[in-house]
């Protein structure tokens, strides 16, 4: 049996778990990379072009191309658009290039562009190349040079001093940069700036201003509402886009006033943000997922999707892959991490009897969910790939690690999916 499984790239690390596998009654699955392809690409974005009080004009752009190839057009009202014409788009590209540790690489053997780093960040790297905000002539560039041409220009314009890494409590990250601006008397001291990217609700909450064209206008509750309405449309529409908000902090705290060892304090440095724009990424479901979920249902196995994504986006994806029916009421079946935390212990236990989706969750929630499911007599399989998934993988009867995951996750699991 294990040999047959190995041929299908399911490597069993503990033999007794094969027996347990046959009795599985609940599968808790990650979304990104497990139910979806993790081939992210930015499909849409919007910025503010004009503003007056609470009156806004939000301009939306579509981006063609869905692979990591850095070729594609930015369309405005269906026509090809030159991104250098809008200062808001230039700033959005700078933010996307600098709040980013990934890069693109051209694989000579396979003749394809490949990601180096996180899929989400690589999608932003590709977007920057497609936007080409400095109108770089790329006609004579080799594929290797094409991969990072526009990103390199932005990364040379600013010097990244340090990064405030992403944390789940503030759901954002930022890059602290300096620019050496030369004045008539030689060079002025470099001026500091921060670029921020993160979950829209979290970033927009901390915005005090909004960039509209070349103006910087005060952010109001009505404007926040209007932006979030459009974000929700992106997340629940036909494409179920995963959204990220981008912004800048024009007068950040001085470097010496920041405690870079204590991530709990990072949120207090990322305040007075000026909203720049939102990008919507597509992470399409794997082709075989719909059939796999239907077969699980026929076998009496409940599939629960667990994701760090926004609840509306997660629900829309669940409908696309068949965890929820098209018009099914999800009340009592779908929870965000915060909603789950607000329940009493009894209510949490009861919620796990019927739940099919948890969104915006922390690894600690995963362990809790497994405990409640086990207390109801369920045999639970849990997928994961990160170091922080290890406790839940260990706790579940069957921990399933991804082949691309960390060594810690693989060690804590009973099974590894090699592909």
Can you offer a commentary on this structure?
The structure is a single chain. The chain is an alpha/beta fold. The chain folds into 2 domains: 2-37 and 284-417, Rossmann fold (3-Layer(aba) Sandwich); 41-282, 3-Layer(aba) Sandwich (Calcium-transporting ATPase, cytoplasmic domain N). Helices cover 33% and strands 30% of the residues. The protein contains 16 helices and 23 strands. It has helices at 2-7, 16-21, 87-98, 119-131, 143-146, 149-157, 200-205, 221-236, 266-269, 289-298, 311-321, 337-341, 345-354, 363-375, 390-395, 407-412; strands at 10-12, 26-30, 41-52, 55-63, 74-76, 79-80, 103-107, 112-116, 159-167, 172-179, 182-183, 186-187, 191-198, 207-212, 215-218, 242-249, 273-282, 302-306, 334-336, 357-359, 380-384, 398-402, 415-417. The strands form 4 sheets. Strands 3, 4, 5, 6, 9, 10, 13, 14, 15, 16 and 17 form an 11-stranded mixed sheet that branches. Strand 3 and strand 4 (55-63) form a beta hairpin. Helix 3 packs antiparallel against helix 4 (119-131), helix 8 (221-236) packs parallel to helix 11 (311-321) and helix 13 crosses helix 14. The longest helix is centred in the middle third of the chain and has 16 residues, at 221-236. The protein is globular, with a radius of gyration of 23 Å. The two termini are 19 Å apart. 40% of the residues are buried. Mean pLDDT is 90; it is low at 183-187.
């Amino acid at each position: 049996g294990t040999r047959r499984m190995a041929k299908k790239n399911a490597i069993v690390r503990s033999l007794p778990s094969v027996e347990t596998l046959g009795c599985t009654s609940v599968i808790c699955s990650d979304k990104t990379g497990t139910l979806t392809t993790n081939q992210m690409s930015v499909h849409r974005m919007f910025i503010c072009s004009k503003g007056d009080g609470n009156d806004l004009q939000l301009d939306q752009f579509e981006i063609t191309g869905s692979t990591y190839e850095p070729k594609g057009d930015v369309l405005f009202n269906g026509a090809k658009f030159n991104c250098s014409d809008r200062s808001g788009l230039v700033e959005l590209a700078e933010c996307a290039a600098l709040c980013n540790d990934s890069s693109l690489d051209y694989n000579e053997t396979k003749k394809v562009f490949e990601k180096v780093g996180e899929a989400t960040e690589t999608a932003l790297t590709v977007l920057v190349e497609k936007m080409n905000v400095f109108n770089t002539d790329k006609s004579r560039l080799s594929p290797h040079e094409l991969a990072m041409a526009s990103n390199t220009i932005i990364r040379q314009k600013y010097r990244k001093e340090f990064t405030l890494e992403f944390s789940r409590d503030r759901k954002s990250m930022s890059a602290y940069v300096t620019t050496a601006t030369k004045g008539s008397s030689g060079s002025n001291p470099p001026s500091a700036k921060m670029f921020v990217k993160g979950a829209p609700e979290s970033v927009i909450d901390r915005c005090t201003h909004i960039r509209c064209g070349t103006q910087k206008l005060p952010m109001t509750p009505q404007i926040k509402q209007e932006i979030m309405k459009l974000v929700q449309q992106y997340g629940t529409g036909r494409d179920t886009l995963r959204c990220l908000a981008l912004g800048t902090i024009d007068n950040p705290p001085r470097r010496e006033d920041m405690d870079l060892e204590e991530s709990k304090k990072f949120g207090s440095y990322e305040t007075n943000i000026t909203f720049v724009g939102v990008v919507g990424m597509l992470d399409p479901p794997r082709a075989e997922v719909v059939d796999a979920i239907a077969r699980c249902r026929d076998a009496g196995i409940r599939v629960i999707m667990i994701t760090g994504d926004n609840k509306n986006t997660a629900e829309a994806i669940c409908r696309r892959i068949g965890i929820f029916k098209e018009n099914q009421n999800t009340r009592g079946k779908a929870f965000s991490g915060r909603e789950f935390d607000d329940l009493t212990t009894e209510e949490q236990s009861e919620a796990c009897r019927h739940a099919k989706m948890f969104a915006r969750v922390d690894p600690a929630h995963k362990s809790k969910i497994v405990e409640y499911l086990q207390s109801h007599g369920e045999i639970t399989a849990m997928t994961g790939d990160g170091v922080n998934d290890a406790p839940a993988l260990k706790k579940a009867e069957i921990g399933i690690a991804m082949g691309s995951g960390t060594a810690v996750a693989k060690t804590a699991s009973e099974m590894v999916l090699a592909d």
